[in-house]
């Protein structure tokens, strides 16, 4: 009797469809919740909370990271998770640039792109090897560090501006 290889994924195959449906809904809420009438342009929660100085981009990265975590639980391989993280990092770092970053946030739908990457993997799940738990831990650590940087950048900028204004 052959032994099954160790799998860290806690999501059973029959639970993948509801999980994917939930992740699709979250991505839609974050990226394109409200479609502007007469256009195909959608505005989601991510660009709106990104307008909040300091914490907006931090919260956006945290919410987007949940999709990556669930993708890892569904067994997505390292290259797929890496591309997902890249989408989030671009979204978060670009969002730190005042005004330009906010417009970029409307156009760059990182969460919807990440769902497409996950769906692409789920079509052919056996084609690639799942990422190991250390890789996933590294990916989540990188996302946490990016979130911390997204909080630190506005604080540093405000402090520099205050120093220039007050001269102290």
UniProtKB/TrEMBL annotation:
Transmembrane segments annotated in the record for this chain: 48-69, 81-101, 134-158
The keyword Transmembrane helix belongs to this UniProt entry's keyword annotation: yes
Source domain of life: Bacteria
Keyword Phosphoprotein: no
Keyword set, alphabetical order: Membrane, Transmembrane, Transmembrane helix
Signal peptide interval: none
InterPro entries hit by this protein: DUF4112
Coiled-coil blocks: none
One Pfam short name: DUF4112
PANTHER family (alphabetical): MEMBRANE PROTEINS (PTHR35519), PH DOMAIN PROTEIN (PTHR35519:SF2)
Protein name: DUF4112 domain-containing protein
